[in-house]
Specification:
By secondary structure, the protein is mainly β. It has one helix at residues 316-320; strands spanning 2-14, 28-34, 44-49, 53-58, 63-67, 71-73, 76-81, 86-91, 97-102, 114-118, 145-147, 154-156, 163-168, 172-177, 182-186, 201-206, 215-220, 224-229, 233-244, 250-263, 271-276, 280-285, 290-294, 309-314, 325-330, 334-344.
C-alpha cells in the first residue's frame, strides 16, 4: 500500500533577481533544487512566476513574493504574476471574493491599484487547499471574464462561452471551453494562434484544426502554444532549431509552425499537463515523468546544462530520485515542478 508524503516544489533556470529558485546561489540553476522559502516547512500549493519575481501561495492562504518584488499577505485564494501587474483573489466577508490589482513593487502595502468584487463558484473551486499547480487566474471565478496586465484589466468574454481554462501568452490568449474546444486570439505573427496564418485575431476564433479532438489542457508561451489531449500533444507556434553558421557553429533560427502538429513523446508516454515559458515547454506525463525542450540558455530545461533542445527530453533528476511529478508551471526563463514522494508502508 502506498503512503503519500507531503509534496515538494523544485525550481531551476534564471534567478538573476533572487527569485525563490532552490538555494538562490548564482544567477542560474541548471538542475532542480528544492524551492527555498522564508519559513521551513511551508506547504506551497501554487506558484506563479513572472520574469523578475515569483509569487508562492501556501495552502493556508499566505502569499510570498521573492525577486525584484517582495512582500507577503494573507487571506489569498489565488494569485497571478506579471511584470506590469500582480493580481490577487482574496477572501472577503459574505459571498464572493475580492479581486485586487497591485503594482508588483508595492510590497503589498497600502491600497491596491484597483479592486472589485467577483462572484465565486462552488466552495473549494479556488480555495488555497486545492490541487497543487492548479490555478484559476487569469480566468475569473465567474468564468465570464479574465484579467489582463494592461487596461482594461478585467475583460469580459462573450456570453456564449463556457470557459474552463484561459492562458495568456506574451501576445496571445488561449481559451479551453467546457466541451474541450480551443479558441485563440491576439497576436499571431509567430503562428502561435494555430489558424494557419501569421495574422492577428481581434476576437476569439475556434481552432478548427483541432475540432473533433477534445482537449484537456492548454498552455500559452511567448511565441508558441500547447494543447493536451487524451491521445497526444498537438503543438502550434514557432520553435527554435539549430542551423549551420559561417564558422560551422550552430546558429539559431526560427521555424514557424502556424498549424497544430502532433508531437509524440518518447517511449509512447502520454501527456497529462503542460506549461510554456517564453521559449521553452515542459510536459508532465501520466506516469509522473517530466519532459522539457526549447530554449535552455539559463538552465530552465533542468538537464544540468544550458543546451537548447528541439525535441522533448526527459529530466532524469526526478526519475533518479524516484519522485513522481504532479504539476509544472513555467516562468518566462525558469521552471517550477511539484512532486510527491511515495513510499510503501
Amino acid at each position: 500500500m502506498a503512503e503519500e508524503r507531503p509534496g515538494t516544489w523544485y525550481g531551476f533556470g534564471f534567478c538573476g533577481f533572487g527569485q525563490a529558485l532552490g538555494s538562490g546561489r548564482g544567477r542560474q540553476v541548471h538542475s532542480p533544487e528544492p524551492l527555498w522559502t522564508p519559513v521551513a516547512g511551508v506547504d506551497i500549493c501554487r506558484v506563479s512566476a513572472s520574469w523578475s519575481y515569483t509569487a508562492c501561495l501556501t495552502r493556508g492562504g499566505r502569499l510570498e513574493l521573492s525577486g525584484s518584488a517582495s512582500g507577503a499577505v494573507g487571506g489569498c485564494r489565488d494569485a497571478w504574476a506579471s511584470e506590469a501587474l500582480l493580481v490577487l483573489l482574496r477572501s472577503r466577508p459574505g459571498p464572493g471574493a475580492e479581486l485586487q490589482g497591485w503594482a508588483p513593487g508595492s510590497v503589498l502595502r497600502g491600497e491596491p491599484l484597483w479592486s472589485q468584487t467577483v462572484e465565486s463558484e462552488a466552495a473549494g473551486e479556488h480555495g488555497s487547499g486545492g490541487e497543487a499547480g492548479a490555478r484559476a487566474l487569469p480566468l475569473l471565478p465567474s468564468a465570464s471574464a479574465y484579467v489582463s496586465p494592461r487596461p482594461p484589466f478585467c475583460r469580459p468574454l462573450a456570453p456564449g462561452f463556457r470557459a474552463r481554462r484561459l492562458e495568456l501568452g506574451a501576445e496571445h490568449v488561449l481559451l479551453l471551453d467546457a466541451a474541450g474546444q480551443v479558441f485563440s486570439w491576439g497576436g499571431g505573427r509567430h503562428g502561435q494562434l494555430g489558424h494557419g496564418t501569421l495574422e492577428a485575431e481581434l476576437e476569439p476564433r475556434l481552432l478548427e484544426a483541432l475540432q473533433g479532438l477534445p482537449m484537456a489542457e492548454v498552455a500559452a508561451g511567448g511565441w508558441h502554444s500547447v494543447c493536451v489531449s487524451a491521445t497526444g500533444l498537438p503543438e502550434e507556434g514557432s520553435e527554435v532549431r539549430a542551423a549551420g553558421g559561417e564558422d560551422g557553429a550552430p546558429t539559431p533560427f526560427i521555424a514557424v509552425q502556424p498549424f497544430p502538429a502532433l508531437l509524440d513523446l518518447p517511449q509512447g508516454s502520454e501527456a497529462a499537463h503542460a506549461s510554456c515559458g517564453s521559449r521553452h515547454t515542459a510536459v508532465v506525463t501520466r506516469t509522473g515523468e517530466l519532459y522539457t525542450w526549447g530554449w535552455g540558455k539559463y538552465g530552465q530545461l533542468g538537464h544540468k546544462d544550458t543546451t537548447s533542445l528541439d525535441h522533448p527530453c526527459r529530466v532524469e533528476f526526478f526519475r533518479d530520485k524516484q519522485l513522481p511529478v504532479e504539476a509544472v508551471t513555467c516562468g518566462p526563463w525558469n521552471t517550477y515542478v511539484y512532486t510527491v514522494e511515495r513510499r510503501k508502508s
